TrEMBL record, chain A:
This is Peptide/nickel transport system ATP-binding protein. Its main location: membrane. GO terms for cellular component: plasma membrane. GO terms for molecular function: ATP binding; ATP hydrolysis activity. It holds the Pfam family ABC_tran. Residues 8-258, 279-527 form the ABC transporter domain. It is found in: Cell inner membrane. It is a peripheral membrane protein. Keywords: ATP-binding, Nucleotide-binding, Transport. Belongs to the ABC transporter superfamily.
TrEMBL record, chain B:
It comes from Rubrimonas cliftonensis. InterPro entries: BP-dependent_transpt_permease, MetI-like, MetI-like_sf, OppC_N. One of its GO terms (biological process) is transmembrane transport. The chain crosses the membrane at residues 33-54, 97-122, 142-166, 214-238, 259-280. This is Peptide/nickel transport system permease protein. It comes from the Bacteria.
Length: 549, 297
């Protein structure tokens, strides 16, 4: 066949009446050739996932449906095929890898049985023994250790990376011509992500399938894309080869997006202005005991082990690590949402670690926290003004004064003070995160603990929130403990970083030095896994913030 | 920084009135809930107008015993002692609604207190409170209610106490579950970090977010309470000085074949009221938890 494998022309996906726009996807056209990886990039709401679902026939019809255009696959329009033929194509000729492998696999079926299911449906001729042989061979190909054991395991017994490998095996079992991958590595840690990306690229090359890869991360794009399609508000704004889009972007939106990506090269730092210590953490330890009843011993998990660091006044200390490294446990101990089992947290001569809830209360306001999820961190039933005034009122400020202060704070974080009367659901993620920061600032803390404050935000909004945090730190002379898994963000924000692995700080030092010459083996592995580390974003003169338009 | 100038979504802050209108719009979408509301309002009107329509004591002998409906001065007939059934039903509606509502309020208060404390604090407090709840749940509720009334002597206050005591455990479990899921939400943790007192977090921050399921459960509890009360009166354990539907049914059961109307009308009243309250509860559920509904359909 001569034409492209997948040819999408003028695709429109209509949203139900009463939505904020008529079409989620509007006049989208692009092709995926055989043996080609096409990355569809965009921020949330760009319609990239719905485009993928339209290809797979997984739109939540009839509310959301493809209303116009064609999706030609091997010369046949998928949109006009009867459901039975479409079903036969799915799995056999086109298959999909989902974002969250835990929810995409059936928890009550073993991995082997789930892959076998695909074969039973699509390849009825195979005998049970042939099926098993094929499954084990494939599990080996996606490099799962000990395939027979893996096949007999339930999804919850596998790690996140192993689950995603099992998903990939399931998608590849029938040797599909087209693989649609919807953010397949977003839920994974960096080191696992690097392995999965390598695996996808390798398998794609061996099987010669076309891949439509949906992602929001330009680093991932730089890593594997042959061609790139950039989407915004349901439209394609730019398409081209990986080299041209990444290094010579033409559309203003692409330029702004690329300009908003934090660079992996640490920003130049002014020397620490003050030698005074704001917070000194010594030998901090926290152990969780799981299970254990009357007759069985509890299993101990050391979430944090002998963590020590020092935070100077006006400094940002980064704690980086993957999930399960204990960085969030450390953050929660610092604000005393958790009580550490060992060690001390010295705040200007007061040890916070052993204090009881009551004794702690007067010190609470001096260490405040910014949370990760802007949608869960604001009480949906209270107005923004109430949320911001609560803290000061608790600490004895007159309500009228607290409300006036709330309005000032909104101005400080770049929101209109008039929004104090509104409820959180009326705001976008970035705006909510600004409110979250304002709430932490309401008590005039000395130390701010920010737990992944920008991880849930789109890259353009992320850049603005990071700039806000840096700006506030300068103006108020705050000291910040910044928890993140994203080394690019850490490079831009932190004066010093501590790298955590399995509850321990394996390396710490001045950001520029750690990034230039990581000493610990794990740190080196972490840096080597950052997607797109070899790609240096071109210096662009994109107007500040154009990305959010 | 365009994010700054980006206007918040929607047409301005929702006023209380706007929210109420929205709530009503979702409620009326459920037709059977509207029917339930109409029946319930009729029962409430009947209860409210009882002293005007039938100023006499419903226990007083009004005329010939066992008169069929629509004869003489009796709309729905009279019972074995010549008491007006219609008058008894109107006054009985007052009893049923009073007991249903008050017992539910007491049960909700107790359930929220126990469930809230257990869910918020967890640990040994949770263990102690939930074991206590389980002790109550192991005894069949109606038999437990009979036992309580028999021990406490039948009076309206004791019947309310008995119904509340057998009803709160289910609510406590519900509230505990809600609190457990709210307990680890980031906004609650933000309040903890802020140094807010626990009682304030429980009452001001978490409770308003749990109100929808509590209201729905409470509305269904009213129906159960009315049923228990009717059952108690039927067995002769009602307050002897207060007319009630269950008492009427109990008084007429021996003459069911000779005078069908004595048990039929109060029985229908019980059935319709309980049905209406259940329908209203379901409508409230649809209106208060719209997302659950969409997911299910």
């Amino acid at each position: 066949m001569s034409g492209p494998l997948l040819d999408i022309r003028g695709l429109h996906v209509a949203l139900p009446p009463g939505s904020d726009r008529a079409f989620a996807v509007e006049d989208v056209s692009f092709t995926v050739g055989e043996g080609e990886i096409v990355c569809v990039v965009g921020e949330s709401g760009s319609g990239k996932s719905l485009t993928a679902r339209a290809v797979m026939g997984l739109l939540p019809e009839p509310k959301v449906r493809a209303s116009a255009g064609r999706i030609d696959f091997e010369g046949r329009d998928l949109l006009t095929l009867p459901p039975s033929e479409r079903r036969a194509l799915r799995g056999e000729r086109l298959s999909m890898i989902f974002q969250e492998p835990m929810t995409a696999l059936n928890p009550l079926m073993t991995v082997g049985r789930q892959i076998e299911e695909v074969l039973i449906v699509h390849a009825a001729k195979l005998t049970a023994a042939q099926r098993r042989e094929k499954i084990l061979a494939l599990l080996d190909e996606v490099r799962l250790p000990d395939p027979p054991r893996m096949a007999a395991s339930f999804p919850h017994q596998l790690s996140g990376g192993q689950r995603q490998r099992a998903m990939i095996a399931m998608a590849l079992i029938l040797d599909p011509k087209l693989l649609v991958a919807d953010e397949p590595t977003t839920a994974l840690d960096v080191t696992t992500q690097a392995q999965i990306l390598r695996l996808i690229a390798e398998l794609q090359a061996r099987h010669g399938a076309g891949v439509m890869f949906i992602t929001h991360d330009f680093g991932v794009v730089a890593e594997i894309a042959h061609r790139i399609v950039v989407m915004q508000h349901g439209r394609v704004v730019e398409a081209g080869t990986a080299d041209s889009v990444l290094n010579r972007p033409a559309a203003p939106y692409t330029r702004a997006l690329i300009a908003a990506i934090p660079s992996l090269t640490p920003a130049p730092r002014r020397p620490a202005t003050s030698a005074r210590t704001a917070l000194r953490v010594t030998g901090l330890g926290k152990t969780y005991r799981m299970g254990g009843g009357l007759f069985s011993a509890a299993r101990a998990v050391h979430a944090a082990k002998a963590v020590s660091f020092e935070l100077k006044r006006g400094e940002t200390m980064g704690i980086v690590g993957e999930s399960g490294s204990g960085k969030t446990t450390v953050a929660r101990c610092l604000v005393r949402l958790l009580k550490p089992d060992a060690g001390s947290i010295d705040l200007d001569g007061v040890d916070l670690a052993p204090l009881s809830r009551g004794a702690l209360r007067p010190y609470r306001k001096r260490v405040q926290m910014v949370f990760q999820d802007p949608f869960a961190s604001l009480n949906p039933r209270r107005t923004i003004g109430d949320i911001l005034a609560e803290g000061p009122i608790v600490h004895g400020l007159a309500p009228a004064k607290a409300r006036a202060r709330a309005r000032d704070l909104l101005g400080l974080v770049g929101l209109d003070p008039k929004v104090a009367e509104r409820y959180p659901h009326e705001f976008s993620g970035g705006q909510r995160q600004r409110v979250g920061i304002a709430r932490a600032l309401a008590l005039e803390p000395e130390v701010l603990v920010a737990d992944e404050p920008v991880s849930a935000l789109d890259v353009s909004v992320q850049a603005q929130v990071l700039r806000l945090i840096a700006d506030i730190r300068e103006r108020l002379g705050l000291s910040i403990v910044f928890i993140t898994h994203d080394l690019r963000v850490a490079a831009q924000v932190c004066d010093r970083v501590a790298v955590m692995h399995r509850g321990e700080v394996v390396e710490q030092g001045v950001t520029a030095e750690v990034f230039a010459a990581p000493r610990h083996a794990y740190t080196r592995e972490l840096f080597a896994s950052v997607p797109g580390r070899d790609w240096i974003a071109p210096a662009l003169d994109a107007p500040d913030g154009a990305a959010a338009q | 920084m365009t994010d700054l100038s980006e206007a918040p979504h929607g047409q301005g802050a929702p006023t209380t009135r706007g929210r109420a209108a929205d709530f009503w719009r979702r409620y009326v979408r459920n037709r059977s809930a509207v029917a339930g509301l109409v029946i319930l309002l009729t029962v409430i009107a009947m209860a409210a107008l009882a002293p005007l329509l039938y100023p006499a004591d419903p226990f007083s002998l009004a005329g010939r015993p066992m008169s069929p409906p629509m004869t003489g001065q009796f709309l729905l007939g009279s019972d074995t002692l010549g008491r007006d059934i219609a008058a008894g039903m109107a006054h009985g509606a007052r009893t049923s609604l009073l007991i249903g509502v008050v017992a539910t309020l007491v049960a909700v208060g107790l359930g929220v207190l126990m469930g809230g404390l257990a869910g918020y604090y967890g640990g040994w407090i949770d263990d102690v409170l939930m074991r206590l709840t389980e002790v109550f749940q192991t005894i069949p509720s109606f038999i437990f209610a009979i036992l309580l009334v028999a021990v406490l002597t039948p009076s309206i206050v004791n019947i309310i106490i008995a119904i509340a005591v057998v009803s709160w455990p289910a609510l406590a479990r519900l509230v505990r579950g809600e609190f457990l899921s709210m307990r680890n939400r980031e906004f609650v943790q933000a309040n903890v970090v802020m140094g807010m007192a626990d009682w304030r977090i429980i009452l001001v921050q978490i409770l308003p977010n749990c109100l929808s399921p509590i209201i729905v459960a409470a509305s269904l509890l009213v129906a159960t309470a009315i049923l228990i009360e009717s059952g108690l009166s039927f067995l002769g354990l009602g307050d002897p000085n207060v007319m009630s539907w269950g008492f009427q049914v109990g008084a007429g059961r021996t003459v069911l074949r000779r005078a069908w109307w004595i048990v039929t009308f109060p029985g229908l009243a019980i059935m319709l009221t309980v049905l209406a309250i259940n329908l209203v509860g379901e409508g409230l559920n649809d209106a208060l938890n719209p997302r659950l509904r969409e997911r299910a359909s």
